[in-house]
Amino acid sequence: MNPDIMNIIYAILVLGILGAVFGGLLAFAAKIFHVEEDERIGQVRECLAGANCGGCGYAGCDAYAAAVVAGEAPPNKCGPGGSKTAAAVAAIMGLDAVPDVKYVAYVPCSGSCDTAKNFFDYEGPKDCVAAMRFGNKGPKACQFSCIGFGTCVKACQFDAMHIVNGVAVVDREKCTSCMACAAACPKQIIQKVPYEQRVLVGCRSNDKGAQTRKLCDAGCIGCMKCQRECPHEAIKVVNNVAVIDYDKCTGCGHCAEVCPRQIIHPQKVYVQDA
Hints:
By secondary structure, the chain is an alpha+beta fold.
């Protein structure tokens, strides 16, 4: 037989033998080092919404499911799944159902195209991160304002964010509180608030009142009228801006009525089915 053909046959045989040997070793190692996965991880994972949004604080649904089974996370952290998912996960884990508190994202800015002064005219890409490269605050004069170019809108998987007259606005009924919008916001101004909170302050400027007046017609000037008038001591001016204590607030709306700048906004709250 031709020596060249014999060499090819020998090479094939050697490679085949080596493949079989190493394959056997790998199979043996896989059996020796195999770690049994708790079947509850898969069960919990099946209950989750599957958005992989990271709103639970974990890298994704798989990581959260593993954390729940390991006792490192509560069963009610899946925002998109809501109370039904929390109850199902709790049942798998043999836990009592955890009371579900619904949260939503909120953009505390009233500096619209009509009320906010501009620091400069911006003609670059309509992206908040890109706009921040100019002056480190974007085109609006107030450094605490929403830039309004929709980076948060692009980050939202649930169509719950929209730009309205130069300010990001949250659709409270669609929001799952995953907070992907907050992670994407270069100014980090988006807050997580209780859905049932009936009044919210539409400003987060820490500038003094006189400076705020110059920069925006809809900014909190820290006049403290809301603080003096609140019958429940639920709102205080901190660092020149009104801050609501949600635990004390009853949602009476009196602070919104007396605010001279009308930047405390009543919220529509729909009663959730039990």
